[in-house]
# Entry
Amino acid sequence: MNSNHDYWDPAMEGLGRAELEALQLMRLQRTLGQALKSPFYAARLKQHGFSGPMERLEDFRRLPFTTKQDLRDSYPYGFLCVPRDQLVRLHVSSGTTGQATAIFYSRKDLDSWSDLMARCMYMTGARAGDTFQNLTGYGLFTGGLGFHYGAERLGMLTIPSGPGNSKRQIQLMRDFSTNVLHIIPSYALRLMEVMSAAGIDPKQSLRLKIAFLGAEPYSEEVRNRVQQFYGIKVFNSYGLSEMNGPGVAFECVEQNGLHIWEDAYLVEVVDPHTLEPVADGTVGELVLTTLDREGMPLIRYRTKDLTRMLTGACGCGRVHRRLDRIRGRTDDMFIIKGVNIFPIQVEQVLMGIPEVGGNYRIVLTRADNVDQMKVQVEVTDRVFVEDMRQLQRLRRKIAKSLCDEILVTPEVELVEPYGLPRSEGKAVRLVDERAR
Ligand code: AMP
Ligand code: ZN
# Structure
């Protein structure tokens, strides 16, 4: 065990690889025993011929996958593994389409989730006594309450400001010397514009030092923009309701991939078509098994999120493996003129162009049986007042840069600052009108 480090949870963060794997096997056994108490897994595991216990960790790869559709089909209580009166919280995710899914938490589940969140934030340098402003939605979205309880556990003065009302956010930051933020990337970009328009330079007039950005895909270019403007360090935060919410994987001070907490989650990356494991470094679908949940354990849950496992040791000393930035979900990918494209590739290009503002949208249409791709791009205030020729030049530059990356030349439409619709929660980057 590595005990020379400043860890929130030295017993878990300081484990060596062999100790970690022994713990995983022990927790996997316990999880399987627990899962069998739910109607869903009792039937599914039996049907699969599972008759525990498992001798080697690798054997869990023979267990069946669990999908979002399974959660929907068993809504609301099919996955429940404790009596209903031992539950203290539920979160419901409606998703963009389809029927809701419900996730249940016992008191112990909430407790270990809060600890995981405190561990994540502590790892980046957040400390008791800091002021933490939580600018994400509370309510059914797990990001709000997940961070809230973690921040309180860590001992930060926690401001549950929620999203929106940017003037008040800035006022709170000033009045209480906020230095740690949790904010979704699209709102961080928007708040930047609000501050710029009001002539506020956060590097001069605020005390910010750290921000946690997650809940939606974003590029390294967005991280750079946000870091530079606010004068802070940005750490990527990944999670999903089915696995508690945030706190599944998080960046350390190295800012080079997200440590996935392997004492709490068993991780696999598989080919989304064959469902066979892919080699480290190869992009595939992330599959997760909970190792420390009693209310609603999930086995080999297909997240639909695409990423790859990074190799090599991390400078921070933790052996918990690192995931690369999430590229998007398998269902975010769109195909146009035979090319597969993820919205994040478009974002990466746009956010590297200084004249481009903080918001964009991809619109797909079909005319005469031919697919058309349009990229609507908000420009900065400064560019907006420029003459037509310059705007035309900018339009061509954006189209050319996009074509270099995605191999398709989209129509580019420049939009005034704040001209595109915004959502309070996760940003909607793709509007596909082709099927209508
Ligand atoms: P929800 O459970 O509704 O909060 O949504 C969880 C989903 O949000 C994940 O499955 C990912 O698709 C996405 N997500 C969360 N965090 C990140 C992140 N840091 N980067 C990219 N996508 C993320
Ligand atoms: Zn690290």
Summary: Residues 334-432 form a domain with the GMP Synthetase; Chain A, domain 3 fold (CATH 3.30.300.30). The mean pLDDT is 95.
